[in-house]
Design goal:
alpha+beta, 5 helices, two-stranded antiparallel ribbon, 49% helix, Multidrug-efflux Transporter Regulator, Chain: A, Domain 2, disordered N terminus
């Protein structure tokens, strides 16, 4: 069976049911056994962990009244796509590549990066910022400049 994945935006139309589902998911501990999806015909199928995690993200956002867009993302990104994911300009992203911040390939004239590498880089940046803020807070507290 071949299907073409397409973008789909979901609006929080059934807020009460979504809130109930979120409450159920929040009460449910992370299980060793995979979650099950039961179809209208009663057939059940286990959910891979990445599908279950996606469900949690979607339900949480819809419960907050947010719309959710589900869209397939290529595992290989252009520099423009990667820059958008990181929230930087394309020239800034190209500089990151040129400085060795991320591996890339050049199958033709244009550079390509792996989505996993971009996500790893994003997480490293977030961790570095967190460590920097923690250090700044510690220095401020040590110098007595941090108010009670």
């Amino acid at each position: 069976m071949h299907s073409i994945a397409e973008d789909r935006t979901l609006l929080p139309e059934h807020r009460e049911e979504i809130a109930g589902l979120q409450a159920f998911l929040d009460r449910t501990p992370t299980a060793v056994e995979p979650a099950l999806l039961r179809g209208p015909d009663g057939a059940a199928h286990s959910l891979p962990s990445e599908v279950y995690e996606a469900l949690l993200v979607v339900v949480r956002a819809l419960a907050e009244g947010k719309a959710v867009t589900v869209a397939p993302v290529n595992t290989t990104l252009t520099t423009q796509e990667a820059a958008g994911l990181l929230g930087v300009s394309r020239p800034t992203f190209v500089k990151i590549l040129d400085d060795g911040g991320l591996p890339f390939t050049r199958p033709g004239r244009h550079r390509r990066v792996l989505l996993a590498d971009v996500l790893d880089y994003k997480e490293r940046r977030r961790s570095q910022r967190r460590r920097g803020l923690d250090e700044l807070t510690r220095l401020t507290e040590d110098s007595g400049l941090y108010g009670d």
